[in-house]
Protein backbone atom coordinates (compact mmCIF):
# COMPACT_ATOMS: atom_id res chain seq x y z
CA UNK A 1 0.00 0.00 0.00
CA UNK A 2 1.44 3.35 -0.99
CA UNK A 3 1.85 6.04 1.60
CA UNK A 4 -0.24 9.17 1.91
CA UNK A 5 2.05 12.13 2.49
CA UNK A 6 1.76 15.85 3.08
CA UNK A 7 5.10 17.62 2.69
CA UNK A 8 5.85 21.29 3.20
CA UNK A 9 8.33 23.14 1.00
CA UNK A 10 9.43 26.25 2.84
CA UNK A 11 11.55 27.48 -0.09
CA UNK A 12 13.82 30.46 0.77
CA UNK A 13 11.70 31.63 3.68
CA UNK A 14 12.24 32.12 7.43
CA UNK A 15 15.35 33.00 9.38
CA UNK A 16 16.82 30.20 11.47
CA UNK A 17 14.97 31.44 14.55
CA UNK A 18 11.65 31.77 12.72
CA UNK A 19 12.12 28.36 11.13
CA UNK A 20 12.85 26.61 14.42
CA UNK A 21 9.76 28.26 15.94
CA UNK A 22 7.58 27.14 13.01
CA UNK A 23 8.93 23.59 13.13
CA UNK A 24 8.25 23.46 16.89
CA UNK A 25 4.69 24.63 16.28
CA UNK A 26 4.05 21.92 13.68
CA UNK A 27 5.75 19.33 15.87
CA UNK A 28 3.57 20.37 18.82
CA UNK A 29 0.40 20.17 16.71
CA UNK A 30 1.33 16.63 15.69
CA UNK A 31 2.26 15.44 19.18
CA UNK A 32 -1.15 14.19 20.21
CA UNK A 33 -2.54 13.88 16.69
CA UNK A 34 -2.94 10.74 14.64
CA UNK A 35 -2.89 12.07 11.10
CA UNK A 36 -3.92 9.72 8.32
CA UNK A 37 -0.76 10.57 6.38
CA UNK A 38 2.98 10.99 6.86
CA UNK A 39 3.97 14.59 7.45
CA UNK A 40 7.27 16.07 6.24
CA UNK A 41 8.81 19.53 6.20
CA UNK A 42 11.52 20.46 3.70
CA UNK A 43 13.46 23.44 4.98
CA UNK A 44 16.53 25.57 4.11
CA UNK A 45 19.92 23.85 4.58
CA UNK A 46 20.84 26.29 7.35
CA UNK A 47 17.89 25.11 9.44
CA UNK A 48 18.23 21.34 9.15
CA UNK A 49 20.40 20.44 12.15
CA UNK A 50 18.64 22.85 14.52
CA UNK A 51 15.20 21.65 13.47
CA UNK A 52 16.27 18.03 13.74
CA UNK A 53 17.09 18.75 17.38
CA UNK A 54 13.59 20.01 18.23
CA UNK A 55 11.22 17.70 16.34
CA UNK A 56 10.17 14.09 16.76
CA UNK A 57 10.95 12.51 13.41
CA UNK A 58 8.60 9.64 14.19
CA UNK A 59 5.84 12.21 13.75
CA UNK A 60 7.40 14.81 11.48
CA UNK A 61 9.88 13.93 8.76
CA UNK A 62 12.62 16.36 7.84
CA UNK A 63 14.05 17.10 4.43
CA UNK A 64 16.20 19.47 2.41
CA UNK A 65 14.97 21.35 -0.65
CA UNK A 66 17.90 20.38 -2.86
CA UNK A 67 21.31 18.74 -2.81
CA UNK A 68 24.42 18.93 -4.98
CA UNK A 69 25.12 16.74 -7.98
CA UNK A 70 28.57 15.89 -6.59
CA UNK A 71 29.56 14.03 -3.45
CA UNK A 72 32.26 16.45 -2.25
CA UNK A 73 35.05 18.67 -3.47
CA UNK A 74 35.67 22.08 -5.01
CA UNK A 75 32.06 23.19 -5.51
CA UNK A 76 31.93 26.39 -3.51
CA UNK A 77 28.55 27.06 -1.95
CA UNK A 78 27.05 23.65 -2.68
CA UNK A 79 25.62 21.26 -0.10
CA UNK A 80 26.05 17.54 -0.75
CA UNK A 81 23.70 14.65 -0.08
CA UNK A 82 26.04 13.23 2.62
CA UNK A 83 26.02 16.66 4.31
CA UNK A 84 22.20 16.75 4.25
CA UNK A 85 22.04 13.21 5.66
CA UNK A 86 24.52 14.12 8.41
CA UNK A 87 22.04 16.68 9.81
CA UNK A 88 19.47 13.97 10.48
CA UNK A 89 17.29 14.82 7.47
CA UNK A 90 15.87 11.86 5.56
CA UNK A 91 14.12 13.49 2.58
CA UNK A 92 15.24 15.78 -0.21
CA UNK A 93 13.15 17.65 -2.79
CA UNK A 94 14.74 17.31 -6.23
CA UNK A 95 13.80 18.80 -9.57
CA UNK A 96 11.54 21.53 -8.25
CA UNK A 97 10.47 23.77 -11.14
CA UNK A 98 12.18 26.76 -9.51
CA UNK A 99 15.49 24.84 -9.57
CA UNK A 100 14.89 23.80 -13.18
CA UNK A 101 13.90 27.33 -14.23
CA UNK A 102 16.27 29.59 -12.27
CA UNK A 103 19.28 27.30 -11.77
CA UNK A 104 19.32 25.39 -15.04
CA UNK A 105 18.80 21.94 -13.55
CA UNK A 106 18.52 19.47 -16.39
CA UNK A 107 17.50 15.83 -16.33
CA UNK A 108 21.20 14.88 -16.58
CA UNK A 109 22.00 16.86 -13.44
CA UNK A 110 18.93 15.54 -11.66
CA UNK A 111 19.90 11.97 -12.44
CA UNK A 112 23.15 12.53 -10.49
CA UNK A 113 21.31 14.15 -7.61
CA UNK A 114 18.82 11.30 -7.37
CA UNK A 115 21.63 8.73 -7.33
CA UNK A 116 23.52 10.59 -4.59
CA UNK A 117 20.36 11.06 -2.54
CA UNK A 118 19.58 7.35 -2.67
CA UNK A 119 23.20 6.41 -1.89
CA UNK A 120 22.87 8.49 1.26
CA UNK A 121 19.53 7.05 2.31
CA UNK A 122 17.63 10.22 1.51
CA UNK A 123 14.16 9.78 0.05
CA UNK A 124 13.83 11.98 -3.03
CA UNK A 125 10.60 13.91 -3.48
CA UNK A 126 11.00 14.29 -7.22
CA UNK A 127 9.05 17.12 -8.88
CA UNK A 128 7.67 17.09 -12.38
CA UNK A 129 5.18 19.31 -14.17
CA UNK A 130 4.42 21.31 -17.26
CA UNK A 131 4.44 25.07 -17.83
CA UNK A 132 1.31 26.96 -18.88
CA UNK A 133 2.18 26.92 -22.58
CA UNK A 134 2.50 23.13 -22.50
CA UNK A 135 -0.83 22.82 -20.70
CA UNK A 136 -2.45 25.04 -23.30
CA UNK A 137 -0.89 23.40 -26.36
CA UNK A 138 -1.85 19.97 -25.09
CA UNK A 139 1.68 18.50 -24.76
CA UNK A 140 1.56 18.23 -20.96
CA UNK A 141 1.37 14.43 -20.78
CA UNK A 142 4.41 14.05 -23.04
CA UNK A 143 6.37 16.70 -21.13
CA UNK A 144 5.83 15.00 -17.79
CA UNK A 145 6.55 11.55 -19.23
CA UNK A 146 9.86 12.83 -20.62
CA UNK A 147 10.84 14.37 -17.28
CA UNK A 148 10.27 11.04 -15.53
CA UNK A 149 11.94 8.94 -18.22
CA UNK A 150 15.04 11.11 -18.49
CA UNK A 151 15.81 11.47 -14.80
CA UNK A 152 14.43 8.32 -13.20
CA UNK A 153 14.03 5.43 -15.63
CA UNK A 154 17.70 4.49 -15.32
CA UNK A 155 16.90 3.33 -11.77
CA UNK A 156 16.40 -0.29 -10.80
CA UNK A 157 12.86 -1.19 -9.78
CA UNK A 158 14.08 -1.40 -6.18
CA UNK A 159 15.51 2.13 -6.26
CA UNK A 160 12.53 3.55 -8.16
CA UNK A 161 10.38 2.17 -5.36
CA UNK A 162 12.12 4.58 -2.96
CA UNK A 163 11.07 7.69 -4.90
CA UNK A 164 8.14 9.94 -4.04
CA UNK A 165 6.82 11.86 -7.04
CA UNK A 166 5.25 15.31 -6.87
CA UNK A 167 3.22 16.49 -9.84
CA UNK A 168 3.40 20.26 -9.77
CA UNK A 169 1.93 22.07 -12.76
CA UNK A 170 4.19 25.12 -12.93
CA UNK A 171 1.24 27.38 -13.73
CA UNK A 172 -0.28 26.46 -10.38
CA UNK A 173 2.79 27.07 -8.17
CA UNK A 174 2.47 30.16 -6.04
CA UNK A 175 -0.16 31.58 -8.38
CA UNK A 176 -3.30 30.79 -6.41
CA UNK A 177 -4.47 28.91 -9.50
CA UNK A 178 -4.94 25.28 -8.44
CA UNK A 179 -5.36 22.44 -10.91
CA UNK A 180 -8.88 21.06 -10.68
CA UNK A 181 -9.20 17.71 -8.97
CA UNK A 182 -10.04 16.22 -12.40
CA UNK A 183 -6.88 17.70 -13.97
CA UNK A 184 -4.78 16.38 -11.09
CA UNK A 185 -6.35 12.91 -11.21
CA UNK A 186 -5.95 12.73 -14.99
CA UNK A 187 -2.21 13.45 -14.75
CA UNK A 188 -1.61 11.27 -11.69
CA UNK A 189 -3.33 8.29 -13.31
CA UNK A 190 -1.28 8.92 -16.46
CA UNK A 191 1.97 9.05 -14.46
CA UNK A 192 1.04 5.77 -12.79
CA UNK A 193 0.45 4.19 -16.20
CA UNK A 194 3.88 5.40 -17.39
CA UNK A 195 5.47 3.83 -14.31
CA UNK A 196 3.53 0.60 -14.85
CA UNK A 197 4.77 0.37 -18.46
CA UNK A 198 8.39 0.60 -17.26
CA UNK A 199 8.37 -1.18 -13.88
CA UNK A 200 5.10 -3.10 -13.75
CA UNK A 201 1.79 -2.60 -12.02
CA UNK A 202 2.98 -3.40 -8.50
CA UNK A 203 5.71 -0.72 -8.47
CA UNK A 204 3.27 1.77 -10.01
CA UNK A 205 0.60 1.01 -7.41
CA UNK A 206 3.12 1.44 -4.61
CA UNK A 207 4.45 4.84 -5.78
CA UNK A 208 3.18 7.85 -3.87
CA UNK A 209 2.31 10.71 -6.22
CA UNK A 210 1.72 14.06 -4.51
CA UNK A 211 0.01 17.07 -6.01
CA UNK A 212 1.57 20.52 -5.63
CA UNK A 213 0.41 23.94 -6.71
CA UNK A 214 -1.59 26.38 -4.58
CA UNK A 215 -2.90 23.58 -2.38
CA UNK A 216 -4.58 24.97 0.73
CA UNK A 217 -6.95 23.81 3.49
CA UNK A 218 -9.96 24.82 1.39
CA UNK A 219 -9.11 22.66 -1.65
CA UNK A 220 -6.96 19.85 -0.18
CA UNK A 221 -9.79 17.47 0.73
CA UNK A 222 -11.22 17.55 -2.78
CA UNK A 223 -7.82 16.92 -4.37
CA UNK A 224 -6.86 14.18 -1.90
CA UNK A 225 -10.17 12.39 -2.47
CA UNK A 226 -9.02 11.44 -5.96
CA UNK A 227 -7.79 7.84 -6.10
CA UNK A 228 -4.37 8.59 -7.63
CA UNK A 229 -3.61 11.71 -5.56
CA UNK A 230 -1.63 10.50 -2.57
CA UNK A 231 -1.13 13.82 -0.83
CA UNK A 232 0.43 17.18 -1.42
CA UNK A 233 3.64 19.15 -1.68
CA UNK A 234 2.76 22.44 -0.09
CA UNK A 235 4.59 25.73 -0.62
CA UNK A 236 3.01 28.92 0.67
CA UNK A 237 0.50 27.25 2.99
CA UNK A 238 3.26 25.31 4.77
CA UNK A 239 4.64 28.55 6.25
CA UNK A 240 1.71 28.80 8.61
CA UNK A 241 1.32 25.93 11.08
CA UNK A 242 -2.49 26.16 11.19
CA UNK A 243 -2.83 26.16 7.39
CA UNK A 244 -0.36 23.32 7.05
CA UNK A 245 -2.19 21.28 9.68
CA UNK A 246 -5.47 22.11 7.94
CA UNK A 247 -4.10 20.38 4.84
CA UNK A 248 -2.72 17.43 6.87
CA UNK A 249 -6.15 17.04 8.44
CA UNK A 250 -7.83 17.06 5.02
CA UNK A 251 -7.08 13.32 4.93
C1 LIG B 1 5.77 24.34 -4.31
O1 LIG B 1 6.57 25.24 -4.50
O2 LIG B 1 6.18 23.17 -4.21
C2 LIG B 1 4.35 24.69 -4.21
C3 LIG B 1 3.46 23.76 -4.40
O3 LIG B 1 4.06 26.01 -3.92
P1 LIG B 1 2.61 26.63 -3.60
O4 LIG B 1 1.90 25.66 -2.69
O5 LIG B 1 2.92 27.93 -2.92
O6 LIG B 1 1.92 26.80 -4.90
Distinct ligand kinds: phosphoenolpyruvate
What is the strand content?
Answer: 5-15%
Principal-axes geometry comes out as globular
Uncertain runs with pLDDT below 50, 5 residues or more?
A: none
Write the layout of secondary structure elements.
Layout (H helix, E strand, L loop, with lengths): L4 E5 L6 H16 L6 E6 L4 H7 L6 E4 L16 H6 L4 E4 L2 H7 L3 H13 L3 E6 L3 H5 L3 H13 L4 H4 L3 E4 L13 H19 L1 H6 L2 E4 L4 H8 L6 E4 L6 H8 L3
Parallel strand pairs: 1-2, 1-8, 2-3, 3-4, 4-5, 5-6, 6-7, 7-8
Helix pairs in contact: 1-12, 5-7, 11-12
Phosphoenolpyruvate binds next to strand 8.
Give a verbal description of the structure.
Helices cover 45% and strands 15% of the residues. Strand 1 (5-9), helix 1 (16-31) and strand 2 form a beta-alpha-beta unit. The protein is of the alpha/beta class and 251 residues long. The chain starts with a strand and ends with a helix. It has 12 helices and 8 strands. The longest helix has 19 residues, at 181-199. Strands 1-2-3-4-5-6-7-8 form an 8-stranded parallel β-barrel, surrounded by 6 helices. Residues 9, 168, 173-174, 212-215, 233-237 line the site of phosphoenolpyruvate.
